[in-house]
Write a structure and sequence with these properties.
CATH architecture: Alpha-Beta Barrel
CATH superfamily: Metal-dependent hydrolases
Radius of gyration: 17 Å
Number of helices: 8
Distance between the termini: 11 Å
Strand order of the largest sheet: 1-2-3-4-5-6-7-8
Structural class: alpha/beta
Strand content: 15-25%
Number of strands: 8
CATH class: Alpha Beta
Length: 258
């Protein structure tokens, strides 16, 4: 069994053929899915899907791009739902920062404030974190350590291959590996993969985004986790069955999924 630990099945791009998407995934051995909370406006859809499909779970959270939407009461409304397995995706993303120095500083400060609030929420309800980090490795690591986020742990979603973050493996954090691993320009991630402890690796798609080779340009689907699994096996010189079993057990341990 494969668990796709990060798949936006609440996205409109899956609405018309979700049953077919899940059927293709099941035929490929994918049997569990986690919809990350990124946007308050899609949270109800994620909950609806989790209640409709036994195989789907969800998390509650706000992506750093949507920080102005942060509504803790709305997240708390669903956090004790039996299918809610995490808080996030939360974190820091400095990739699109623009404006004056003052405006950029204000943006960073608000991102940090909302990130810290979600760490506190996760600790209060004893849920692991799904963490989004882009061009913000140092600040993210400092916040995670200063606020003792390792108490609940979590996953560095779409791990960006920054060596500075590798030490978080010793602080109860896992590393989400997706389709980027199959890209021709993913040399940094390819080179760092073997430095990640095996017991800290999990698989994700981030669908409908970041579709792996040879399907780049198409909508990403959970069945493509098999391509990530096989690439991981090739690079780590293991067989695919070993990687599948390993990453599934890791995901079950982190998210408490049976």
């Amino acid at each position: 069994m494969i668990i796709d630990t990060h798949i936006h099945l609440d996205d409109e791009r899956y609405r018309e053929d979700l049953d077919e998407v899940l059927q293709r995934a099941k035929q490929g051995g994918v049997e569990r899915y986690i919809i990350p909370g990124a946007d308050i406006t899609t949270l109800e859809r994620a909950v609806e899907l989790a209640e409709q499909y036994e195989s789907i779970y969800f998390s509650v959270g706000i992506h750093p791009y949507d920080k102005e939407q942060y509504d803790e009461k709305a997240l708390e409304h669903y956090i004790n739902h039996p299918k809610c397995v995490a808080v996030g995706e939360c974190g820091l993303d400095y990739f699109r920062l623009e404006g004056s120095d003052e405006e950029i500083a204000e943006d960073k400060a608000l991102q940090k404030e909302i990130f810290v609030a979600q760490i506190a929420l996760a600790k209060r309800y004893k849920k692991p974190l799904i963490i989004h980090i882009r061009n913000a490795s140092h600040d993210s690591k400092v916040i995670l350590q200063e606020h003792n986020a390792g108490e609940v742990g979590g996953v560095l979603h779409c791990y960006n291959a920054d060596d500075e973050l590798l030490s978080l493996a010793n602080e109860n954090f896992y590393f989400g590996i997706g389709g980027v691993l199959t890209f021709k320009n993913a040399k940094k991630l390819v080179n760092v993969l073997s430095k990640i402890p095996l017991e800290k690796l999990i698989i994700e798609t981030d669908g409908p985004y970041l579709t792996p080779h040879p399907h780049r340009g198409e909508r990403n689907e959970p069945v493509y986790t098999t391509l990530v699994r096989d690439k991981m096996a090739e690079l780590l010189q293991e067989n695919s069955e070993f990687i599948e079993d390993l990453t599934t057990k890791n995901a079950q341990k982190l998210f408490h999924i049976s």
